[in-house]
Amino acid sequence: MVLSVIRRWQVLLFCLLLAGPLAAQKAPVMPIRFGSVVPADFANAPAATDTTTAAAEYLCDFGTTKIIGAKDHFQVVFERTARLRINRKAGYEYATVRVPLYFKDGSAERFTNLKGFTYNFQDSKIAQVKLNPDPVFREKVDKNHVQVSFTMPNVREGSIVEFSYTITSDFIFNLQEWRFEHSIPVRWSEYRVAIPQFYRYKTVTRGYRPFAVQESTTIPYSTAYNMSSENHMAPSQDALLTGVALQLRWVMKEVPAFRSEPFMTTPYDYVRSVHFELAGSDFTGNNYHDLSGKWETLWKALQQDEEFGKALTASAPLAAQAKALQLKYPVPAARAAAVLALVQRSVRYNGQQRVYASQSLRHTFEKHSGNSADVNLLLVQTLREAGLPATPLLLSTRDHGQVQTSMPVITQFNYVVAHLTLPDKPAVFLDATEPQLPMGYLPERCLNGEGCLANADGTWLPLKPTASHLELRTARLQLTPKGQLEGTAKLEYSGYAAVKASRQIRESSSGEYLGRVRNRWLDWQPTNMKLLADDSTHNSVAVELGISLSADNPDAALFYLPLLKVLANTSHPFQSEQRVFPVDLGMPHDYTDLVTLTLPANFKVEVPANVALALPNGGGRFLYQASQPTPETVQITTRLQLYKPIYSPDEYASLREFHQRAVAKYAEMLVVRRQ
């Protein structure tokens, strides 16, 4: 395509088409010059950053990408220069650099021009040791990626390491992405990309921290291009292509180390980064070619794939059972639930998250084991055999990252479930990887943005939870005249709480699960623990036990009783004062605690004050109610409800204060006085 256009229009005309009025653009200053380390670089960072306590830090990380001409095609050239300071021994690992490279169909990205130095400040002088570029290690990562790695020499505490390298790629669609945040602080990170006007790319930014600079400018562009003759008999021709390019520039500075916090999916969704997808080309000025991924193309490929579409149309191993269920259950919803239970009983999920089947579905059935695609494509096939119009749904799990709905690329997905349309329910999800997972539930790992139906339309559907995480905890206690608490407790889990408990039991044993439950009580003495039978119909799990707590001073006149500690989890999950990322709970949460205490004669209780808290915009509530129905009885009821699956960073301060106040109330002692 490129070659024919250049020949058709000739180089001069091509240049005229590309050329346009250029405004004078002052090029931004380069943030780093290789080899220019000075004594000031060894000084501590400003107190405003967290680099003084970090094991290592990026002083500067600078990358550029440009597109140049080659022989009958264009290439992407990526150059990176980075300078780090190793503050402590724990930071030595950052002196080893790993670089992924892409290869496909006999062509591979090339890693070249590696150079580097390690600098140490000794006796008021800078001593340097040169990196030997030869011992570069290569290892295969997967069928399309290798990783090269190198380690900087003579690294010690206080060293500065500096390196640069080039990656040259024939994959014009594969512009290098850039990551601005790391697990160590970054003083300056900058990325520049120059895109000639005959190419168009979609740019996707991820993350939440703001850019210090985000700009686009028009700059002059020129590149050499070598053209073969049409019959490959005459000598090739060299051409100089000139015109303009769009330069994109991003800068972040004084970036704190990235740290995972509670209720996050995967760092990939939160780390500030930029990504690209080739959208199209126009080599004549009036003949744009759309090169972006189209769902129609992906769908056709899936249909013809032996490990996806053709696997579904092969002989169904559960066809006979499916036909029997079709006769037994005329109501579609009941039939779908029965098919789901059949597949859940027939095969076991091996923990591998995949879009493609690893074997024929018959082999999966015969082995009674398979990856997520093996199991759930078998589910889709069996639902169809039972007369139900099931469709595979592609998705990305929480640990794989959010999908970009504008970029239908198969590598975005790593999981498949079944989708079903019923007369009274337009969208029902089914997943057979977890035994007893009810119809309509997705595993928590799948509650992540949107999924795409694997049919001709490629419709995107929100992956919303159909239930909450529900915990009901009750206790009946008696206070003895010696101040000892004795009684029974019951922990009941339903919704996604039951799904989690059932998985923990299945992955270990009932005994090990009860052992972990026992560890919740540090001061209390649990006895006679028993796990009640799972109720798969209502999706619930329950534990019953006896409990007791001895008094420190049996003859005291005043007792302080930690009643709610017998039930509630009084830990506070939001320790950070500030948060720039959303709080992703996956689903709404609902915790209810009910404690009934019977007092001995001649004891009097100080009834605590009731409390009612609410999050802004209906985000949740907390209720604490204490009452004394009779002189011998005290009841305390609490309920903490978080109505939303996701809370934005702007809601974090309110959410944190809400939890702090609720936890403080949980920890409040009940004061009982001996008369």
UniProtKB/TrEMBL annotation:
InterPro entries (alphabetical): DUF3857
Segment forming the signal sequence: 1-26
Protein origin, superkingdom: Bacteria
Every DUF3857 domain range: 78-207
Pfam families: DUF3857
Name of the protein described by the UniProt record: DUF3857 domain-containing protein
Organism the protein comes from: Hymenobacter telluris
Record key words, sorted: Signal
